[in-house]
């Protein structure tokens, strides 16, 4: 497998406060990679650097061999990296379908083609029946899936998911896990997720990275990482120890 | 355009056809005064639609659109008065100059992150100092105004916009119709969707790969260019231009009331808005005159009250409410 995303020694400081400290990892094409860590570990800062919202102070980020650090968010998206927001940001006054059509229009100029593609994506995410509803009247689980649908409609090579499970009940989490697995397998989309819900991470991720105070403390396969002493003390809690 | 038709149900299509026919045939029965009111309505449909593209679809609140009306009017009128260049040709530099101003304001605002109310303030500022500037442009009449001379011999030269009321009525009709069709087309286009995304949530729009700067620039360019054409119409219809009148802030406000009352970001909102507000203004003049209420500002107070009532009763605009009420639009399936 080849590296789709290569993060090398990336760091970010805010007025002297080190939010992310020389983080390096590689996401291979076709895999699901998770970044976990307690609140304030620098997950979202790392995420925002990959998505083009923040410019790293040091290090580099390469996507398909091309540097993307310092690009604007729209340029990053045009290269094939789509993201979702932790606090969902649907286009409230537009219908579910129009929300997704806007994503589909990134690489399509023909409206009919965009609409067809949007409907396909909506069907994959079980939102097809709700396509004529305005986004503002959706429930939170539906909004989360809409957020995902919109990003997916841009035909990304890499999907960045910022806590898509947050605020979902266990059954909804399972449904989301199922959807993500389907997207990964059937569409071949590589997924990088930042997640708190360990259940979902364990079920999905092939590899994971644990951040603590901005620095990587463990990296590897989930079953190895959860047995790591540093991870247990800093994140999972001592009682999780076997 | 076809999709505009398709999105309407049978009843909506009938209403549209009847309305268009009625407008086409109105001159047969209408008095000269009524025709002038209808011309004014159509003018406001046109410029309101131009503004609606920018605010209603792209979400950029310009409070200085009188700038583009004035520039368009002055450029075309100046070329005609001084060089005998007819408005059909003069409209090209008129549009180019207005669009250049629009581009500059847009670039300044969107490049340097001047957003929301600050963008609106910027548009007001540009209109205001252009007004002051025009007070001092001698060849264009300065504060004393620019007049397009009335020449008996030229009457009927429609190619120089030297026609009578009937000519201007149909010209306004064509302009308004074209503006509605253009809006309908844009609203369903890729660009239109990018605009709506920006209007709804700029950060999310950017995350979906939309070049927000470019899309906003296109909105200002299209809107300012369209508005300038309205300015050329205005200049040759009224035959006079005063900086204090055309660039005045109240002119910018007058132009945006139609789309707001009719329904922002809808194709027919600006149309309905103009048909509600312009006759209302005329009616209020008549009523206050009859009642002997000649106190200055009496009309403005009544107008303001009626506006408040309309906005209170139908906050989303008259058109969305009306089309739902009368069942004119098909639910998309």
Automatic annotation (TrEMBL), chain A:
Xref: CDD domains: ABC_Mj1267_LivG_branched
Ranges of residues in domain ABC transporter: 5-238
Pfam short name (any one): BCA_ABC_TP_C
GO MF annotation terms: ATP binding; ATP hydrolysis activity; L-isoleucine transmembrane transporter activity; L-phenylalanine transmembrane transporter activity; L-valine transmembrane transporter activity
Keyword Transport applies: yes
Origin: domain of life: Bacteria
Stated name of the protein: ATP-binding cassette domain-containing protein
Lineage of the species this protein comes from: Bacteria, Pseudomonadati, Pseudomonadota, Alphaproteobacteria, Hyphomicrobiales
From TrEMBL, chain B:
An MF annotation (GO) of this entry: branched-chain amino acid transmembrane transporter activity
Keyword Cell membrane recorded: yes
GO CC annotations on file: plasma membrane
Keywords: Cell membrane, Membrane, Transmembrane, Transmembrane helix
Location(s), subcellular: Cell membrane
Primary residence: membrane
Transmembrane segments: 40-59, 66-85, 91-110, 167-187, 219-237, 257-280, 300-322
CDD domains given in the database record: TM_PBP1_LivM_like
Topology in the lipid bilayer: Multi-pass membrane protein
Protein name per the record: Branched-chain amino acid ABC transporter permease
Natural source organism: Rhodoplanes serenus
Lineage: Bacteria, Pseudomonadati, Pseudomonadota, Alphaproteobacteria, Hyphomicrobiales
